[in-house]
Here is the input.
Amino acid sequence: MKTNTFGISREETSMSLLGSTRRDFLKAAAVGAASLAIPGCMLVGEVSPARRPNIVLILADDLGYGDLSSYWAKDLKTPHIDNLVAAGMRFDNFYANCPVCSPTRASLLTGRYPDLVGVPGVIRTHLKNNWGYLSPQAVLLPQLLKKAGYHSAIVGKWHLGLESPNIPNEQGFDHFHGFLGDMMDDYYTHRRHGINYMRLNNKHIDPKGHATDLFTQWAKDYINERVKSKQPFFLYLAYNAPHTPIQPPKHWFKKVKKRETNISDKRAKLVALIEHMDDGISKVLTAIKQSGAGDNTLVIFTSDNGGQLGVGANNGPLNSGKGSMYEGGIRVPMCAVWPGKIKAGSRSDRVALTMDLFPTICEAANADLDYEIDGRSILPTLLVKDQPPEDRFLFWVRREGGGYGGRAYYAVRYGDFKLVQNSPFEALQLYNLKDDPQEKRPLDKKHKMYQKLFTALRNHIIEAGAVPWEKYPVKLNR
Here is the structure.
């Protein structure tokens, strides 16, 4: 019987585990450790139902931890995102749920680990290179917000399915204006593999212009339309920028080259693409303010994974970048602004993941969440209320191409300790992030935390193995 690194057989990972819960699995790994129960969202009643806020969630694509001038960048100017960071709470230890796109987006919209809702890897056009299918059992954020009286929209990149039922309007969103697919082949023609995935709800559209400009304008249009109603709204604005192709408008590239005299063309193109997005975000924030909704709008900004090193990204002092389970692949910038609620200029070193935004938004919106998820609300932290210290295992999983079953990449963290495997062909490495934040000095396998983390990760893999991630049966000649 063939087994993987964790001694798990293919039969074992495919067995039914529907009678087991996450708590059952983690108890086995917690011998000698603190309690690891993961509760459902408990609403703290901080927000009056009569005064539900509008919520705008802005997600950048492949924006590195060091690619904002408010974080680490010296050759890049993002004044509008910087102002957003200064107006609310900045997180220094915020993590994407995966070092690639689709899984993080699945976690954002479900509050679950991505491999537990059928998205362990990137959802793509072609079956042979597709590594996810959003579970029919998954409950998405706009579905809960609808019950709380919200109108919900996604503008921009979806990347969780290309056909019914896994398209935005069938997953709870009232309005969709954007791109169904993953990366665009060209920011101006908006195709992927020559296929037009641009939609206005279920209608094919073929707009002219740079995708960043289009998404910015469509977000403004939505805000200006919705403020005419007394109904609160949730806007999920997902830019393709600064994902490849690195294709900024020419005048933005020229502007960067003129200002940064020693910058390479490769780096200048990425900087220009980011600065162009920053300018677009400023227009969206201005629309919120001018609409009169600014005082009662919660704005959250973050990225879906770390920056891609091959195109000149800067992940600050972190090791590696997009695709990697090292910190540079998964730690991302994040801030939240809510006038009168979140203190301007505040900062948190609390460890949180993308999936935690799901219960946070539910709590802010007074949306009932009466079932158990993996995410934990960080609203108490944002409102400077008491919140227990972080006490849970955190998991990262990524599947990618390479033969039947593909390759898998893993990481698990508890406290300051993190166990990483960036390739199925290398040994797992244990790091103490407090003493070794750049992950350069792996600890001995005999360290007491190695087995605890190993066991927890192994159990998570077994649990996720019961969740289908392909719409069609696997073909052995894949």
Summary: DSSP finds twelve helices and 18 strands in the chain. The two ends are 21 Å apart (CA to CA). The longest strand covers residues 407-414.
